[in-house]
Amino acid sequence: LSLAATGSVTEGGQITYTATLSNPAGTAMSVTLSNGAVINIEAGKTTGSVVVDTPANDVYKNGSTVSTTIESTSGGNFEQLTPSTTPAVTTITDSIDNTGLSLAATGSVTEGGQITYTATLTNPAGTAMSVTLSNGAVINIEAGKTSGSVVVDTPANDVYKNGSTVSTTIESTSGGNFEQLTPSTTPAVTTITDSIDNTGLSLTANGSVVEGGQITYTATLSNPAGTPMTVTLSNGAVINIEA
């Protein structure tokens, strides 16, 4: 008595097990397999089959082999029945299903604030995974979860005009056990707005001069100039302040 099985199936498919006798069964008989399935062989026949479902199709990497043997037999009325101990082996291959990964960020923050980046999967992570961003930040997503976040500081608040936008993308991923993971290439964009901080500018001059002498005018900022600047006075004189 030997056992054969479908050689290869895609996950979610079916395996057909066939038991074959070297002589016809004298009476109806049954063959119980190690997976619990039962093959029935009619009297006078040499073969019988049973169909067994494989695990349902999913998005995770889980291709494997299934090895099944003859566990026991009953009936058949043979003088001596010798079941083969050779297992029937089936390879289960993954059906490639895609999982998407997108990145979102806080839309707008004031300089010195924080940007929250959130990575979102279209299917829960099969294992813990990490998402590395183009700014070096890393988002961790736990097994069984679909999203994770990380908080990144923006440059410290200052007195200069420097509002800007920050564009960040997904650089790489690891873990998750997906058959196929497709990270979005669309950047997550955050606008960084200036926090308006005041800088004072004062003007001083010599308190007293002799006629024919010179007056020195001094313009003083409460913060250093970010770029070279000029200060024009009411008398037409111009003061230059270096960056």
Give a topology summary.
Blueprint: E1 2-5, E2 8-10, E3 14-20, E4 29-33, E5 38-41, E6 47-53, E7 64-68, E8 70-75, E9 88-93, E10 98-105, E11 108-110, E12 114-121, E13 129-133, E14 138-141, E15 147-153, E16 164-168, E17 170-175, E18 180-183, E19 188-193, E20 201-205, E21 217-221, E22 229-232, E23 238-241
Parallel strand pairs: 2-9, 10-18, 11-19
Antiparallel strand pairs: 1-3, 3-6, 4-5, 4-8, 7-9, 10-12, 12-15, 13-14, 13-17, 16-19, 20-21, 22-23
Could you describe the 3D structure shown?
The mean pLDDT is 91. Strand 22 (229-232) and strand 23 form a beta hairpin. It contains no helices and 23 strands. The protein is mainly β. The protein has strands at 2-5, 8-10, 14-20, 29-33, 38-41, 47-53, 64-68, 70-75, 88-93, 98-105, 108-110, 114-121, 129-133, 138-141, 147-153, 164-168, 170-175, 180-183, 188-193, 201-205, 217-221, 229-232, 238-241.
At a glance:
With 243 residues, the chain is mostly beta strands. It is built from no helices and 23 strands. It folds into 3 domains: 2-93, Sandwich (Immunoglobulin-like); 98-193, Immunoglobulin-like (Sandwich), CATH 2.60.40; 201-241, no CATH class.
Q: Keyphrases for this structure?
A:
Immunoglobulin-like, 3 domains, mainly beta, four-stranded mixed β-sheet, 243 residues, 23 strands, 50% strand, three-stranded antiparallel β-sheet
CATH class wording of the largest domain: Mainly Beta
> Number of helical segments?
0
Overall domain count: 3
Largest sheet: 4 strands, mixed
Q: Compute the average pLDDT.
A: 91
Q: Provide the gyration radius in Å.
A: 39 Å
Overall spatial form? rod-shaped
Strand segment count: 23
Q: Could you spell the SSE succession in H and E letters?
A: EEEEEEEEEEEEEEEEEEEEEEE
Helix content: under 10%
Sheet with most strands: strand arrangement: 15-12-10-18
Uncertain residue ranges: none
